[in-house]
């Protein structure tokens, strides 16, 4: 699943088969927040036995969707790359129109702000991308999205560490199509770094039960000062 080796029809069919099993899909969704999880935890999430989970995980590893991290006797699974996460997120786009105007309360937080692998997605992610592009703090180039000096200076004035904002100037991001908003948010290394900085600053915090990101009152106020506001 790389630009250097595009999918052929047989590989695409295999990927479709991997996603067609609900237990495997549940495991992949659980890893969309960028975490690493052991097989036992993924088995519990998918509602299958340890032996069944092991077989599913082997197929996902062989299919290139997961990677394995070994630490001593412990084995942890995670998504193979940011590109895999973006592909999984994009797979939901044909179903985005099925989202009701008033989604269930448990879904509202995911629509407002969530992690797409490790970067900010949802209404807040799209609003940030739009606002900072309009202010020329971000610039879309042929090979992705970059942070401009004016944007880094604005973040320093907002209280971010100078070292953090300088590192943003060295990173490239990409436009990632948001499955609920059907517009772009900032993905890639730049998107990951921005999201990490928002969490470190206390402007966002992670939900305990899913991949939602919860803006704090102070975070919403400070983001609004930077042109980023949630609709409604």
Describe what this molecule looks like in 3D.
- With 232 residues, this protein is α+β, with helices and mostly antiparallel strands.
- The chain is built from eleven helices and eleven strands.
- The strands form four sheets. Strands 6-7-8-9 form a four-stranded antiparallel β-sheet. It has a three-stranded antiparallel β-sheet with strand order 1-3-2. The protein has a two-stranded antiparallel ribbon with strand order 4-5.
- α3 crosses α4 and α8 (149-157) packs antiparallel against α9.
- The chain is globular and about 55 Å long.
Summarize the structure.
By secondary structure, the protein is an alpha+beta fold. It contains eleven helices and eleven strands. Residues 4-99 form the HTH arsR-type domain.
pLDDT averaged residue by residue:
86
Question: What structural category characterises the helix and strand content?
Answer: alpha+beta
Rg over CA atoms: 18 Å
Give the % helix.
Answer: 40-55%
Shape: globular
Distance from first to last alpha carbon: 38 Å
* Count of alpha/pi helices: 11
For the record, the count of structural domains works out to 2
Features:
DNA binding, cadmium ion sensor activity, 11 helices, 2 domains, 232 residues, 11 strands, HTH_ArsR_DNA-bd_dom, lead ion binding, alpha+beta, Arc Repressor Mutant, subunit A, four-stranded antiparallel sheet, DNA-binding transcription factor activity, 48% helix
List the topology elements.
Elements: H1 9-20, H2 22-30, E1 37-38, H3 39-46, H4 50-62, E2 66-71, E3 74-79, H5 82-91, H6 105-112, E4 114-116, E5 119-121, H7 122-134, E6 138-141, E7 144-147, H8 149-157, H9 162-168, E8 172-177, E9 184-187, H10 188-200, E10 204-206, E11 213-215, H11 217-225
Antiparallel strand pairs: 1-3, 2-3, 4-5, 6-7, 7-8, 8-9, 10-11
Helix pairs in contact: 2-3, 3-4, 8-9
């Amino acid at each position: 699943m790389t630009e250097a080796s595009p999918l052929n029809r047989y590989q695409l069919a295999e990927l479709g088969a991997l996603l067609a099993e609900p237990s495997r899909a549940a495991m992949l969704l659980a890893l969309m927040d960028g975490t690493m999880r052991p097989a036992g935890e993924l088995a519990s999430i998918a509602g299958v036995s340890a032996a069944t989970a092991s077989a599913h995980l082997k197929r996902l590893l062989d299919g290139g969707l997961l990677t394995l991290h070994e630490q001593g006797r412990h084995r942890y699974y995670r998504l193979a790359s940011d590109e895999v996460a973006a592909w999984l997120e994009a797979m939901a786009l044909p179903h985005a129109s099925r989202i009701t105007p008033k989604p269930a309360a448990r879904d509202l937080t995911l629509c407002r702000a969530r992690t797409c692998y490790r970067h900010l997605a949802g209404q807040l992610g799209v609003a940030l991308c739009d606002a900072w592009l309009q202010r020329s703090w971000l610039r879309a180039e042929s090979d992705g999205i970059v942070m401009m000096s004016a944007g880094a200076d604005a973040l320093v004035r907002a209280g971010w560490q100078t070292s953090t904002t300088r590192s943003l100037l060295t990173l490239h991001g990409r436009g990632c199509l948001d499955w609920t908003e059907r517009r772009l948010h900032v993905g890639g290394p730049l998107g990951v770094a921005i999201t990490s900085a928002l969490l470190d600053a206390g402007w966002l915090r992670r939900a305990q039960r899913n991949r939602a990101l919860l803006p704090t009152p102070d975070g919403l106020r400070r983001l609004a000062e930077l042109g980023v506001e949630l609709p409604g």
